Amino acid sequence: xxxxxxxxxxxxxxxxxxxxxxxxxxxxxxxxxxxxxxxxxxxxxxxxxxxxxxxxxxxxxxxxxxxxxxxxxxxxxxxxxxxxxxxxxxxxxxxxxxxxxxxxxxxxxxxxxxxxxxxxxxxxxxxxxxxxxxxxxxxxxxxxxxxxxxxxxxxxxxxxxxxxxxxxxxxxxxxxxxxxxxxxxxxxxxxxxxxxxxxxxxxxxxxx
Length: 208
Description:
By secondary structure, this protein is mainly α. The chain has 2 domains: about 15-60, Homeodomain-like (Arc Repressor Mutant, subunit A); about 70-195, Tetracycline Repressor, domain 2. The protein contains 11 helices and no strands. The longest helix has 23 residues, at about 150-175.
């Protein structure tokens, strides 16, 4: 069962370096094999630290890999912002591009998506909090792409897009759908969203 403890916060340069090595080693192992095939001692050996040292920073495997997922995802918003604005000139184009980039990221790292499904079943509060930060970060990236959309609408669109992306990638990892089909479904969603009038001026809608 996952520990409810929170890992130690590094305070010195050496401690920061040690924690970073652990994250880096865990990330490298996940790139090679699925989460359930990784043992925590393998991470400690790859990072060159004692097992007790690893557990001081990450009291459980679940917490460690929640941090791996969060660390890996932090470059995604920056990559999105580097794209030329002339290419993604509308919210529709920007949302479509954001979803495509997410699919391509998981295409390159399918084990990272399967990690998501594993962490969703974890109930340890510390792990849940790190996973929440990961999920909110991606939703925030989608909200950035909806800069010209009403705020209330943008939140719902981002939530719906996240749910659809999650469902379709799940089908892909299980071999029930191809990546081409995933992208086609996401494109169809974006097209429907931006071709359907939304009641942005409705008092009932605003009251929610």
